[in-house]
Write a structure and sequence with these properties.
By secondary structure, this protein is α+β, with helices and mostly antiparallel strands. The protein is built from seven helices and eight strands; from the N terminus they run βααββββααβαββαα. It folds into two domains: 330 residues, Outer membrane efflux proteins (OEP); 92 residues. Strands 2-5-7-8 form a four-stranded antiparallel beta sheet, with no helix packed on it. Helix 3 runs antiparallel to helix 4 and helix 5 packs antiparallel against helix 6.
Length: 435
């Protein structure tokens, strides 16, 4: 079986794939689609309701009725006789129509269905944002983890070089066996750490595929980050965010509208309703099965029709409607508290994101200075080594410090990108990562 080619993934590819394939995003879009069908369902209540019916009834024993004997050749009003009314067979087929002329609950329900559609639309957008945040954060976490593996690889290479030098010195009687044993143990520990980092990297890559909705078995290839392209920018302390533009806030406001419409639906129970009804039926009756039989076979057929205008006026239901309205008021008040709490939480998230970004920049400046100093130490040590004033071990240690400082700076840049995701989220601009 031919091995599958790895899927090349940059951040844009990953988030676009996730928006289309993630199961939560798909479900949110299905909820949005389903909301249109709910509108159609409520709209149907305002359209004519037409029903057809048919039945055949067999009466093996007819109901007897007690009557005074005033019939026949010898009537006697003081005598009671039992008389069977009806026919053994009855058949009927008919159609009925009902049209609502005025029903405030239908109008309120239609408004609520449209508001529900907008609610699910916002919910789908929020779900997409959450998916983008998960994928983007996890994507940079993969790059950070890979950078840590790179730092450890550089350390292992330099340590092996020192090991080789010590072994050569030991053969010439210039080093002790314990020094070689120590560095061998050190290399073994470094290899164990490397394997742990690789295991964590594999877990992060699998988690990334899970967030994307990609089959876990699919191999992926993530290009190395373009460190040079990362341009950190500090956030001004007086910057603020428009909370009303956040989907979390808009979703709660839409929910408030839905609760208000629910309250109006309860109020509509106080209003009268008016409808038009009509019925038409064709019936046959006789002592034989009426189907395909007429008057000559003892079966009589006749039709009937009716039209009615129906007015329903609610008078008293024990205060149930009033209680439902009060419950709706309480639900709205509770939601207003949620809105206030969400407003505080969104402002807090923005302030924390600003702080994290600015702290990341401070760390970056520190790591950049460390890298500059390590470069200077390495340059000086190299000159001293060339002039016989420093040992090879000193030079290798300086080289290791330089590599670690440079890699730490690169890791700090990637961690800045992770913090930047939270800032973009707090500003409600996660969709910008799709472009």
């Amino acid at each position: 079986m031919q091995a599958q080619e790895p899927v090349q993934l940059n951040l844009k590819d990953a988030v676009n794939y996730a928006v289309k394939a993630n199961q939560n995003a798909k479900k949110a879009r299905l909820d949005e689609e389903n909301s249109q069908y709910k509108i159609d369902e409520v709209r149907a209540r305002a359209l004519p309701q037409i029903n057809g019916s048919a039945a055949i009834v067999h009466n093996p024993l007819l109901q007897m009725s007690a009557l005074p004997n005033i019939f026949g050749p010898n009537p006697n009003p003081n005598e009671t006789i039992l008389v069977a009314f009806g026919q053994k067979w009855n058949a009927n087929a008919g159609v009925s129509l009902n049209q609502a002329l005025f029903d405030k609950s239908v109008l309120t329900g239609l408004s609520a269905a449209k508001a529900t559609q907008e609610f699910y639309k916002l919910s789908a957008q929020l779900t997409e944002d959450q998916v983008i945040e998960q994928v983007a954060t996890n994507y940079y976490q993969v790059l950070v983890q890979r950078q840590q593996v790179g730092v450890l690889d550089s350390t292992i290479r330099n340590t092996r070089r020192v090991q080789s030098i010590l072994e050569s010195q030991y053969k010439n009687g210039l080093a002790k066996k314990i020094d070689i044993d120590r560095i061998t143990v050190n290399i073994s520990n470094l290899n164990s750490q490397r394997q742990q980092l690789l295991n964590t990297l594999a877990l992060l890559e699998n988690q990334l595929k899970f967030y994307m909705g990609m089959p876990i078995q699919t191999p992926i290839s993530i290009p190395n980050a373009d460190i040079e392209a990362i341009q950190p920018k500090a956030v001004a302390k007086n910057d603020s965010v428009n909370v009303e533009s956040r989907l979390e806030y808009q979703l709660l406001k839409q929910q408030e509208e839905l609760l208000t419409l629910q309250k109006e639906a309860y109020k509509s129970e106080y209003y009268p309703s008016l409808s038009l009804s009509s019925n038409y039926s064709y019936q046959g009756t006789g002592n034989k099965l009426p189907v395909l039989k007429g008057e000559k076979q003892g079966v009589n057929w006749f039709d009937a029709a009716s039209v009615s205008l129906n007015l329903r006026v609610p008078i008293f239901n024990g205060g149930a409607t009033k209680a439902r309205i009060k419950q709706a008021d309480v639900s709205i008040k509770k939601l207003n508290e949620d809105i206030n709490n969400t407003t505080l939480a969104l402002n807090l998230a923005f302030e924390n994101a600003k702080t994290q970004i600015n702290n990341s920049i401070i760390t970056l400046n520190s790591q950049q200075e460390n890298a500059r100093l390590a470069q200077e130490v390495y340059f000086n040590t190299q000159n001293n080594y060339n002039n016989g004033l420093a040992t090879l071990t000193d030079l290798l240690n300086a080289e290791t410090s330089l590599t670690q400082a440079q890699n730490s700076y690169s890791s700090a840049l990637l961690n800045y990108k992770v913090a930047e995701i939270q800032l973009i989220k707090s500003q409600g601009q996660l969709k910008s990562l799709l472009n």
